[in-house]
Amino acid sequence: MDEPHCRKINYHQTGEPFFHCAPIVIPYLNPTELASISSTCKTLHHLSTSVIPRRTSDASRGFEKLPVPFHNPIPDDPHTYSYFLYTPSQILRTTTHLRQPWGSDHDTPPDPPSPFLFRVDGATGCDCAKGCGADDFCPCLNLECGPSCKCDSLCGNRETQCGLNLKLKIVKHEKKGWGLYAAELITAGRFICEYAGEVLSTKEARERQQSYDEAARMGRLSPALLVVKEHLPFGNTCMRMNIDATRIGNIARFINHSCDGGNLDTLIVRSSGSLLPRVCFFAASDIRADDELTFSYGDVALSADPRPCFCGASSCSGILPSEHT
Q: For the whole model, what pTM was predicted?
């Protein structure tokens, strides 16, 4: 039987609702749905395949000031990009099935969410006109300016709140999968990005990690749930943050582990008037263009089902740290 070709209709001129809406609907589809609709007819095949190069050209869906392209140098590997929903900052746990357009000629990302998920009522910030944090009496002396401050987004004490300001790329490795790489020289101390995703309770994080571990064992998923534990200076108190970028996150979800500590510093950044701190990455040393960005996921401990580590460091333990560490 000849391949169906939709009666050779020019969908731009036809009045049929389906073909009129197809260019709008298709960018909302995930890869499985794209492949399914692509096989139905020539017109939909053309529309479906046209979004792939646009997705490959920018993982951030336009949320960042600079595009972050995918690059897969592995021969015969058909996967040219990794599908996930993008958020440039922390968001609350989602219970609904969200959709974002990705790959349209005229993608217009929604307004980015505030970097501050929860604000402290009545908190007092600075009223500095410039040079915030430089004055010994400034309330932001050891903090970044935040929602309770009067300065704007151009303030120099809001370094981690303005998104991506350097060139990066996402490259696929035959064993490690996708990783985040420098696309320009990055000098020591420079801000890279924050770790964005869904903020979970410890109970929710453990439940998700269990399901992720099962899916990962079957090769269906590469989880990106980050658990950060900060030991506070009083008593034996430990603050735990659970940020899940598996389904919804930003480019930080592609930063791989290195047993030697990597070339990134992980810092907990607090802002005036913001209840929750944010996990941010800075260059620990000068990073050359085409070098991979890595950090340590934590200490390695024996687990029932360890995952192999392919970091390549001379001190590599051969096992990835797990959430239980």
A: 0.88
Tell me the one-letter amino acid at 90. Q
Q: How confident is the model at residue 299 (pLDDT cuts 50, 70, 90)?
A: confident
The CA-atom distances, in angstroms, between 296 and each of 127, 209, 260 are 38, 19, 7
Tokens of 72: 């897969």
Using CA atoms, how far apart are residues 149 and 123, in angstroms rounded to an integer?
A: 9
What does the alpha-carbon distance between residue 321 and residue 302 come to, in Å, rounded to a whole number?
A: 9
Look-up of token digits 């340590």? 296
Instruction: State the pLDDT confidence band at 244, using cuts at 50, 70 and 90.
Output: very high
Q: Which residues of 191-228 are buried (b: 16+ CB within 10 A; e: fewer)?
A: bbbbbbbbbbeeeebeebbeebbeeeeeeeeebbbbbe
- pLDDT of amino acid 140: 84
| pLDDT range class, residue 283, cuts 50, 70, 90 | very high
Listed residue (270, 253, 60, 283) closest to 158, CA to CA: 270
User: Does pLDDT of 15 surpass 50?
Assistant: no
- Displacement of CA 310 from its chain's centroid (Å): 21
Listing DSSP states for 214-279 in one string gives HHHHTTS----EEEEEEE-SSTT-EEEEEEEEEEEE-GGGGPEE-TT-BSEEEEEE-BTTBSS-EE
